[in-house]
Amino acid sequence: LSSSSAASDVYKRQTLPILVEVAISPKHPKMLDEFLLTYRSFCTSLQLLDVLEKFFKTPPGIDDEKEKTIFQLRISSFLQRWIRSYWLDFKGDSALLSRMDDFLDRVIRPQQSTPAGQIKKLISTKLAEGDKSKEIKHTITGSAPEPLLPKTSADEFSIFDAHPMEVARQLTLIECYIYNKIR
Fold first, then answer.
1. Angle of CA points 84, 89, 94, to nearest 5°
2. Predicted pLDDT at 26
């Protein structure tokens, strides 16, 4: 998850709670964004939310009330970043939104009403934006170009038989799809 090879070796084969703890830690500022970009490859959003709730209730290895409050505020910041930057994780997922609402009302609000209110307001804003937020707007009015198909049969096809323009078109479509999945 980290750009340096020594640091990335440390985080390979770790459990989800350890990765979340590192992502929340102020010692690894880049880790939060890297974690939010990649967590879908090893857990679901609901599993992540479960770990965050567990940590909010019982911060790992923290007994001091002041440190506990600081750690809980980091979790609130994590939630805000997640919602703000990766809204597509929540959009259309009523189970996740319901679970998040429950987590905010039942766990965070009694301890920290201001962060809970800010997160709920952010969710309301995102829901109100609806389909306007970061959707692809197609502005091409003409029809798609005719494909440049190779003259060889599918059994004998090689990438070198394809027209360079058609290869470029297909790669562009694939990259557009991947970019939109990340965004």
1. 110
2. 85
